């Protein structure tokens, strides 16, 4: 008789172990050895589990051109980068406090002459730029530049509708000659290839004309990041709980246009409720929040009917629920006919009779016809 309960407990233990989920554990210090300048999650953390491993390509930061000093990355920044890729926090745990990322030790060291690659197609000592090498500039520095690079800075600033002092632009070092070409030296035919507000990178098809003839066609890519004020949680918030002003702090981050489009402005957070459980350090996005339900079906609601300069008040029962500003159906007493009103607060609604025939609600106003 005692063996059956034991057999039932064993599967539960297995399920509980599986429910713990995968883990991402930050290293204390790493030497960056990846290609290019972009640092990925797999470069700075130990990834345990299939789901955690699949997140290794997430971009968490980047070394600026020529930068040799270490980067210090806090766990809140890592969490933000993961949030932007819609990580399922029910399947993974993030451990660690911060990680120090050191640049490559041999990035600017030439190999011995005998070990240097040779080519019959280029002069000795000539080096080509890395495919990933980028030049970063603030947009406000470029606005008055009479070059193609300056035109791009002006165009992107206007398209994104941001202050040029809050916009960084990364240009490919391989296209320096084209980017620095004077606008007076020829005619440029420029075609945007994507929607700026919903992109990580902006691509342009550029055709140069000289003497009325097309000379060349190039694909130019620019990586913009925008200084943005975002709302970061100070404390954990359970699902369905409203968020108060003291739960949030304002944080400045550099975001791509795509990342920026889904954020919640810090002054638009208070009073909204969490859709899921949110942890401290989470950068709040529209998908994380909802307006709290102020009226549920079956609730008693005080309805104020406005007619000219008069206000009639009645008690009704909600036939549907909703949030602030939504229109719901209500019923007065045992009347068979329902009427509608707009929710204004918890348990309260208003009906403007000047906008509708007054007979719609006359029977429900305690016998008084407005």
Concise synopsis of the structure shown:
With 370 residues, the chain is α+β, with helices and mostly antiparallel strands. The chain has nine helices and 23 strands.
| Overall 3D form | flat
How much helix is in the residues?
10-25%
Secondary-structure content class: alpha+beta
- Mean pLDDT equals 77
Number of strands: 23
Number of helices: 9
Radius of gyration, CA atoms, in whole angstroms:
30 Å
Q: End-to-end span in angstroms?
A: 76 Å
Report the uncertain regions. 1-20, 106-131, 357-370
Please give the largest β-sheet. Answer: 6 strands, antiparallel
How large a portion of the residues is in β-strands, by DSSP E? 35-45%
Task: Return the domain count.
Answer: 3
Note down, in words, how this protein is organized.
By secondary structure, the chain is of the alpha+beta class. The protein folds into three domains: 87 residues, Sandwich (eubacterium ventriosum atcc fold); 160 residues, no CATH class; 70 residues, SH3 type barrels (Roll). The chain contains nine helices and 23 strands. Strands 9, 10, 11, 12, 13 and 14 form a six-stranded antiparallel β-sheet that branches. Strands 18-19-21-22-23 form a five-stranded mixed β-barrel. The chain has a three-stranded mixed β-sheet with strand order 4-1-7. Strand 18 and strand 19 form a beta hairpin. The longest helix is centred in the N-terminal third of the chain and has 17 residues. It is flat. The N terminus and C terminus are likely disordered.
């Amino acid at each position: 008789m005692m063996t059956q309960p034991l057999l039932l407990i064993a599967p539960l233990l297995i399920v509980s172990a599986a429910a713990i989920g995968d883990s991402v554990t930050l290293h204390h210090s790493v030497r960056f050895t990846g290609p290019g300048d972009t640092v990925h999650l797999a470069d700075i953390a130990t990834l345990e589990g299939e789901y955690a491993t699949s997140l290794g390509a997430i971009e968490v930061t980047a070394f600026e051109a020529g930068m040799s000093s270490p980067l210090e990355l806090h766990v809140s920044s890592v969490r933000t980068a993961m949030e932007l890729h819609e990580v399922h926090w029910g399947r993974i745990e993030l451990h660690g406090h911060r990680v120090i990322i050191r640049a490559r030790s041999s990035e600017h060291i030439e190999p011995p002459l005998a070990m240097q690659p040779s080519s019959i197609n280029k002069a000795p000592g000539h080096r080509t730029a890395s495919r990933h090498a980028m030049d970063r500039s603030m947009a406000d520095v470029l606005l008055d530049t009479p070059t193609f690079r300056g035109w791009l800075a002006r165009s992107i600033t206007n398209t994104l509708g941001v202050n040029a002092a809050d916009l960084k632009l990364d240009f490919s070092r391989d296209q320096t000659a084209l980017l620095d070409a004077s606008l007076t030296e020829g005619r440029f035919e420029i075609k945007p290839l994507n929607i700026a507000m919903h992109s990580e990178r902006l691509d342009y098809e550029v055709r140069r004309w000289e003497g009325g003839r097309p000379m060349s066609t190039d694909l130019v890519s620019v990586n913009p990041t925008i200084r943005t004020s975002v709302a970061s949680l100070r404390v954990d918030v359970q699902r369905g709980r409203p968020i108060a002003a003291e739960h949030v702090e304002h944080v400045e981050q550099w975001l791509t246009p795509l990342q920026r489009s889904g954020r919640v402005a810090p002054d638009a957070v208070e009073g909204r409720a969490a859709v899921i459980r949110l942890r401290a350090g989470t950068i709040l996005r529209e998908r994380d929040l909802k307006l709290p339900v102020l009226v549920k079906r079956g609730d008693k609601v005080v309805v104020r009917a406005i007619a000219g300069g008069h206000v009639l008040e009645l008690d009704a029962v909600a036939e549907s629920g909703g949030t602030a500003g939504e229109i719901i159906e209500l019923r007065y007493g045992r009347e068979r006919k329902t009427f509608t009103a707009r929710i204004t607060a918890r348990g309260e609604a208003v009906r403007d009779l000047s906008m509708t025939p007054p007979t719609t609600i006359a029977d429900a106003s305690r016998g008084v016809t407005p």
